[in-house]
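ok so I'm stuck.
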Amino acid sequence: MSTRKADQPRVALLQGTLDLLILRTLLFGPQHGQGIARVIEQQSDKTLLVDHGSLYPALQRLEDRRWIRAEWGTSDNNRKARFYELTAKGRKQLAAEAHEWRLMAAAIARILGPEEA
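replied:
not stuck anymore, here's the structure
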């Protein structure tokens, strides 16, 4: 996954970010891989772009951990696609990871201080 604005270079994100964002996206219901990537891009105001080389290994990793499950279905454009769904174990993991990220973000914000103009 990368972050990008038109006038900014790509920036590496901390490990685990993509997993957290996928779990959060699936909180609202089942979604296929391309749909997950699209939601992350839209909700981040096109700052976060998820490439397939990162997305599908992450989905497999989350499925192996039983945080999500997948079923074959048909997408809106009538194509066969795997739809991913959050499991009860995944919901617990999302809550734990979101809490940790909020603590870390608050700590980093304290260190950085207010944004300078």
